[in-house]
Amino acid sequence: MxxxxxxxxxxxxxxxxxxxxxxxxxxxxxxxxxxxxxAVGHNVAxxxxxxxxxxxxxxQQVASDLPNVExxxxxxxxxxxxxxxxVNVLVRGVRTVVDVDYEKQMAVMxxxxxPQLDTVMLTPAPEYAHLSSSLVRELASLGxxxxxxxxxxxxxxxxxxxxxxxx
Length: 167
Fold this sequence. Notes:
By secondary structure, the protein is an alpha/beta fold. The chain has six helices and five strands, in the order βαβαβαβαβαα. The protein has helices at residues 20-32, 52-62, 78-84, 97-113, 133-141, 152-161; strands spanning 9-13, 36-41, 69-74, 89-93, 118-122. The model has no long low-confidence stretch (mean pLDDT 94).
């Protein structure tokens, strides 16, 4: 009898900052997979506002109610992270047709580089479908309210990052 390897999923991204849309995907993926790693990417090209360590710590707070979720930072290719951590399913959040086209292309490339890796795409809940980290950063920098965009643990550090007092 051929036994299947245990399913280990990873949801990768920069998460700068983690939004309610990300939190929605994390919580839903945690219900779908026995083990989920939130893989926080170190990508200096994206000019992150939060350090890798800060982003990992914020996501750990956001996912603290999920015993099957761990959060790890990484740099380099996500397929290398997947291979090194026994990941066989990548979870990707998609909001638009453009996201789907891009993620499909990445899924095919990732599978070519690491044939054991499948990709599952999840859409966020409708109330978060418009959110992106870059939009949240822009709104925070312009003084707009962010309380309905990010998890509670993120509000104070986000406001402070842009020189705004946290209420």
